[in-house]
Amino acid sequence: MRSTAPxxxxxxxxxxxxxxxxxxxxxxxxxxxxxxxxxxxxxxxPDTAPHANAKEDSDDQDHA
Length: 64
Prior knowledge:
1 helix; flat; mainly alpha
């Protein structure tokens, strides 16, 4: 007997993947995404972690 195995979708087939979001959820997600993108680009708050201003200890020398 032959079993019916699940088929893999075509990876190059264009599919619409637009979830239906409520306006409230869309507004919340938009704000969160903007915050993440701003933080990722470094335009947000400066990094206040202890390592932010620490100079790396190494024996590298400037070679010009």
